[in-house]
Amino acid sequence: MEKIRERFTNFQKAFLRLKEAVSERSDNPLLYDGAIQRFEFTYELAWKLLKAYLEYQGIVNISSPRAVFKEAFSVGLIENQEKWLRMIEDRNLVVSTYDECIAKIIFDRIKSDYLPLLIELEEKLKG
Question: NCBIfam families from the xrefs (predicted)?
Fold first, then answer.
């Protein structure tokens, strides 16, 4: 349980920083870059937190983000599985290539789609 608490605390810290980044309104590419980096870090902490939580519940043999999100959805930890799976694709896209237009699109998705998912996750695990 201590491992889960520690991961949750780290997730909350990163998530707070992500919320700060996306609350800024600017057309400055540096803002997009910073927010996307914070998104990548928060994403990593989120899936690893879910993995640790599932393992604590006795669900093992899940080692990829896709498998973790699918299992977390099946047990009711997260909702909207499609958006969580698209989050993986967007995260992989920004890690492997850089295009300012793509960065803007993903920045907008972080604000509109992924931030609400992460808020729901935080609320679910906090309660």
Answer: HI0074 (TIGR01987)
Q: What angle do CA 4, 81, 31 make, to 5 degrees?
A: 75
CATH assignment at residue 34: 1.20.120.330
Q: Residue 104, Cβ neighbours under 10 Å: how many?
A: 14
Q: What is the pTM of this model?
A: 0.90
Give residue-wise pLDDT tens across range 11-40: 999 999 999 988 877 677 778 888 999 999
Give the gyration radius of the chain's Cα atoms: 14
Closest CA to 17 of 32, 37, 3: 37
DSSP state of 61: S
State how many domains the chain has: 1
Tokens 């967007």, residue located: 90
